[in-house]
Amino acid sequence: MRFGAYVYEPEKAEGFDFHVLRVKQETGKRITPVQDMNSNIAVFADNVAAQKNKNWISQSLLGPAQFGNYKYNIYWDMVCATQPEHRAEQIKYIEEVDRQSPGIWLNSQYFADHGHCTCPRCKKLWKKSGLGWLEWRRKEITGYISQIREHVKKELVMCIQPDPITAYERYGVDFDDLAKYADAFNVVMLSKSYATPWYWEMLSRGFKKILKKPVYISLYVSCPGDSPKDVPPPTELLNTSVRCARTGIDGILYFATGAKKLLDFQKGVVNNFELRRRLRSYGGHPVQEVLDLVNNWEQLIQ
Ligand SMILES: [Zn+2]
Could you give the C-alpha distances from 27 to 39, 127, 129, 280, 285, in angstroms and in order? Predict the structure, then answer.
């Protein structure tokens, strides 16, 4: 297994095998890539592009893909996935970032959610395609990912929502299609609580079964603006890491504001000797790999 730090701030945390930096967030904010950190880019979730071009926002019968439309779980504004200028600009940007860092990890590289997008262009493209609605959406997403692949020379990782069953209906995502172009998947399992590890373990097992490329999962440590009571306790994170590791996934990333928050998490985990001892009996080699990682972290906190 490989363990990664997935962060907002351009500073490498110690004690991880690799690093993913949020170079372009869903807010549209962009920061300079770092040459030894992979670059995470939100493609269609982009408040800046959406606010500058209000007619680019993805549409549906349940309203636009905008923050505040509670008919969907959308926490930012999303550009329509067929918007040609946005698509072209994102490919150019991804190509530039690819030159400056070891890999590209894409977020929101698909439709906003079920029922999107019903803008006049999408309706026209759909009718012209002669395909069913869902198949047309799939073709749009797969086609765009194949174009991106041509411009990414290094590693390309597809971040996906933790929904193993209805990604096709909701996002136009066919996992087998994406596997043809992706080097790996990252299932973003962010939650402010991991109090019931059973669900995360089940999701990991399900994704490992269906995805035809290596599977990473991402667990939530912190986000900018969180207070200490907002974030999952280190003990829940360690317990869930072990439970997910034993499903055969290929790696775990820890999502945090930056290196300092990760160090707080690492300290919290290291100091829980009783849990570390108990978890030894939870599985075979992958469980041991998580516990070895924690053993290595002991040196960081002295
Ligand atoms: Zn549209």
Answer: 16, 32, 32, 41, 40
The Cβ-side half-sphere exposure at 134, using a 13 Å CA radius, reads 8
Q: How far is the CA of 275 from the centre of ligand 1 (A)?
A: 50
Tell me whether the omega of the peptide bond preceding residue 159 falls within 30 degrees of 0, making it cis: no
Sequence letter at residue 44: F
For ligand 1, the distance from its centroid to the CA atom of residue 24, given in whole angstroms, is: 22
Of 232, 275, 287, 226, residue with least CA distance to 254? 232
Determine the Cα–Cα distance for residues 278 and 124; give it in Å rounded to an integer.
59
Radius of gyration over alpha carbons of the chain, in Å? 19
- Taking only the tens place, the pLDDT of each residue in 268-297 is 999 999 999 999 999 899 999 999 999 999
Contact 253, 20 (CB under 8 A): yes
User: In Å, what is the CA distance from 226 to each residue of 7, 23, 245, 266, 270?
Assistant: 14, 20, 27, 17, 22
The class of domain 2-301 in CATH terms is alpha beta
Cα of 58 from ligand 1 centre, angstroms: 5
Q: pTM, whole model, 2 decimals?
A: 0.97
Output the six-digit token pair for 2: 């490989």
Both tokens assigned to 97: 């970032």
CA distance 227 to 134: 41
